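It is worth pausing here to work through a concrete case rather than discussing structure prediction in the abstract. The textbook approach is simple: state the sequence, then state the predicted structure, then interpret. We follow exactly that order.
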Amino acid sequence: MTIIEHALYGGASVYKFDQKLFWWGMLIGLFPDIPPLLFAMYKVGAKKGLQHFTWKAISEDIPESVYKLYDVTHSFVTVIIVSFILYFVARSLTILVIPWTLHILCDIPFHDSRFSTRFLYPLTNLHIHGYSQRNHRWIHIVNGFVIVSIYIWLLK
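Step two, the predicted structure:
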């Protein structure tokens, strides 16, 4: 799933609850990919880091620490911890964990190889070898249809 698709799903997931949080929902919807991307760009340079995360090229130069950060930001364990913190610090913003959770749920079936989502990390490395978007372009067509349908429903 592309970062744009994640953002659109994230915004839609909070829109009916609180329209003022729509843009925050979009931002949180793409958040799990941002720290690993920025860290990869820092470790191997902007060009290689961007190529790696956009899947135009898979670089062997990406250090394991980038993947570990990816595992942390794509873990339900992390989401639960952040949810508890938000609940006690800013209860009204707890709704913003929905886009993050949805991001992880969407990544589980649509990531493969080293980016297979380890959704219970660090408790376990359990993951599902999903459908790669590089090899299955139809995923974007289905996502586009679903996103358009959701937004038509939301804006009615």
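Step three, interpretation. The chain has eight helices and no strands. The chain has a mean pLDDT of 88.
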